[in-house]
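Tutorial handout. Part one gives the primary structure; part two gives the three-dimensional structure as tokens.
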Amino acid sequence: MTVHYPRSKGKFRYICSTGRVDRDVPLCQDLSGQVVDDLVAEIILQAMEPAALELSLLAAGDLEQDRKRLDQNWQQRLQRTRYEADRAQRQCTKPWNWRTGWQLRAVGGLPTHAFPC
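Part two.
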């Protein structure tokens, strides 16, 4: 079969011209090119569908792993922040830290934001 493109702006066709060239016999087959191309494209897409599904599942798995990794990172940051806040609170409850903090602030040796008490 060969592709025949008409000179006018018509649609292309697939034509079997072997019999006509070899034995002066009429065309054995003549098909619309667009119909054949659409069918071939559909068959190719159907054949590729399982691979596309597999890739989609792999991508979803990767996204889930990324989400878990980010969540774990945020949980660790939250835990670290809670620990630092608890530590600062424990230090502020000790009387010797109060006095030292007040004295340092009074003489200007420590900015107010540097000492939490």
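Part three, for discussion. The helical segments are 18-23, 33-92, 95-107. The chain has a mean pLDDT of 77.
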